[in-house]
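Hi Q.,

Before the meeting this afternoon, I wanted you to have the pyridoxal-5'-phosphate prediction in hand. No need to reply - just skim if you have a minute. The sequence and ligand are here:
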Amino acid sequence: MKLRDNARFSTVCIHAGQEPDPSTGAIITPIYQTSTYVQEALGRHKGYEYGRTHNPTRSALEANLAAIENGRAAFAFASGMAATGAVMTLLKAGDHVVVTDNTYGGTYRLFERVLRKYELDFTYVDTSDLQAIEAAIRPATRMLFLETPTNPTLRLTDLGASCQIAHAHDVIVVVDNTFASPAIQRPIDFGADIVVHSTTKFLNGHSDSVGGIVVAVRDVHIEWLKFVQNAEGAILGPMDSWLVLRGTKTLPIRMERHNANTQVLAEYLAGHPKVSRVHYPGLPTHPQHALACRQMKGFGGLISFELGSLERARTLLDSVRLMALAESLGGVETLISHPASMTHASVPPERRLQIGLTEDMVRVSVGIEDVDDLKEDLAQALERV
Ligand SMILES: *Cc1c(COP(=O)(O)O)cnc(C)c1O
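Predicted structure with the ligand bound:
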């Protein structure tokens, strides 16, 4: 069961980082639910000393995700936010970061409410505009923090072009790849230095674990991240590592179905008289459809659409039966939400308008159910609008 260097994506997802368990031959990496390891003699051990520093289940997941994202090493954290928090320790007081303006709300909160206290400075720009990125870079800029597609307006950033701009100024590029997943886009292939994920979403894929991962390529970053993972200690536990490891095995086929279902619903909604606007990179009407075709393999499982008023959005959300009203995304089951009052409630109204997040907008994380059942559910709910 040796994985060849040229193994293809689905094969890598299933096998990378995973050897039959050395003590029993178990094909699935066991959940090593232990805090410490017995040492044979003073100074003689098997590479494992203490559970915060080393855990075989976590190591297997880290090797698996490093391969999946085409990085050189990965580090698993207790949540997506813990992962991003660890990445930001690469910076020091006085450093400046350029950030996608429509970044995940928790990322914005971490940067503004926590990291500003440590004298890091942030500028938020529409990174779909390459000139805006270039214009925001200053002598103190050390990092470009990108998210593409964004939530919930599904705006894209050109990864290759923005990496070129950043690197020309000696600025490292970090990409939050949670929304796309590596089955759809691999930022490192476009030049990114670091990728972060909330594994809570598509990577785990079954809505039963919270976690995060950082994937890196450069030695200095790898060394520091390994150090800080142990020093700060916000590690992913063995049970959650095992769940995500199970999730990544089916990532490629899950994403295929997410993509296919979402495309069908996007086209259905775009042709519906009660829907005023649909945001989905897979529709030719999406302003960056050409970029999506170049940069993404499939257009993802997230869609948002506008219904004309808050009242109409509320009626739809109250009328769906199969789709569950809930935050989060990326699971096998379809979730529907109202970003303005749920995920983005803490974003000031004027900022929401700036990023195109309107009150009548509904977001769906399309699951992998039979698409006809999903369509019928939307149809009966739209009838009541
Ligand atoms: C959910 C999410 C996060 C945060 O991840 P947690 O696991 O909830 O801490 C970060 N970025 C994006 C894009 C997300 O969707």
